[in-house]
Amino acid sequence: MQEFKLRPGPDLFNRIHVKDQRGQAFCGCAVIIGSGRNARSQMHATTGISEVTADTPNMIDPERLAVELGADMCAVNRGRVWTIDEIELVGGYIADFHGVRMTWVGEMVAEDLFLQFQNPYLPSLIKRYTKWTFHAGKTVQILREPGGPVWVMQEYTTATDPTLTIDNLHEVGSKLKNLPEGWTFETKLLDKDLVLDTMACDAWASIIRDDLGCTYQACGYGHDTSANYIP
Q1: pLDDT for the residue 159
Q2: Is 8 inside any structural domain?
């Protein structure tokens, strides 16, 4: 196996700050290095780097890209749309994946990533240097655990349910068939900005995916201090 050609990690000179991201599509790519519990998934996204269309994910050949990078596997995210209003992040290197420019945005244990795809509502950790802001006067979609954390939707996907739009996310709750007992889904109107800042908690975030593949970040999970308040 050849050496991985990129050097993952944050670059303090690559600070990205983009506004008006609610409803904006983006493309992601996970680059897997290693095997078993030692495997790591290096996460990449187009946000703040390049515009995407519905055809953008099809430009990337995952198998060919893995060979070119010296990686074990690559997986492309499709149909992803932000629910966040304002995004700030410290990215890493910027790479061209078959004509799609992306930046490194974080790292996961690869096995956790795979398990999350197979098991909705399974918490996983991701290390990324991000600050998500949901603006006052806007709505957020929330999953509440009984006596546990609150999960705020950061992105939805049309890969499972192509009828989802930024305007009908309040209907997601009625479509979740495997919501754990005691959990509830709600849409909440914010009366002040909600900020989830991983740089306030050692860059770690807890995330889950629901039945439809939508992704949520935790507020108040264990000793997590990323949220400025619990909505």
Answers
A1: 92
A2: no
Pairing of strands 100-109, 40-45: antiparallel
* Single pTM value for the model: 0.95
| Three-state secondary-structure class, residue 68 | helix
Give the pLDDT confidence score for residue 165 in this predicted structure.
97
Q: Does any domain span residue 4?
A: no
206 vs 220: CA distance, rounded Å: 10
Question: In the chain, how many domains are there?
Answer: 1
Cα separation, 20 vs 28, in Å, equals 19
CB atoms within 10 A of CB 125: 14
The range of the structural domain enclosing residue 187 comes to 15-219
Burial 2-33 (b: 16+ CB within 10 A, else e): eebebebebeeebebeeeebbebbbbbbbbbb
Consecutive H or E run containing 103:
strand 100-109
Query: Are the C-beta atoms of 208 and 119 separated by less than 8 Å?
Result: no
Asked if residue 230 is part of any domain, the answer here is no
Mean pLDDT of successive 10-residue stretches along the chain, which has 231 residues: 82 97 97 90 97 95 96 94 98 97 97 92 96 98 91 96 97 96 97 95 93 93 83 91
Cα distance from N-terminal residue to C-terminal residue, the chain:
47
* Sheet of strand 130-134: strand arrangement: 15-18, 86-90, 130-134, 194-197
Domain for residue 3, yes or no?
A: no
Q: Do 208 and 149 meet the contact criterion of CB atoms below 8 Å apart?
A: no
* Rounded Cα gap, residues 79 and 160, in angstroms: 9
The reported pLDDT for the residue numbered 175 is: 97
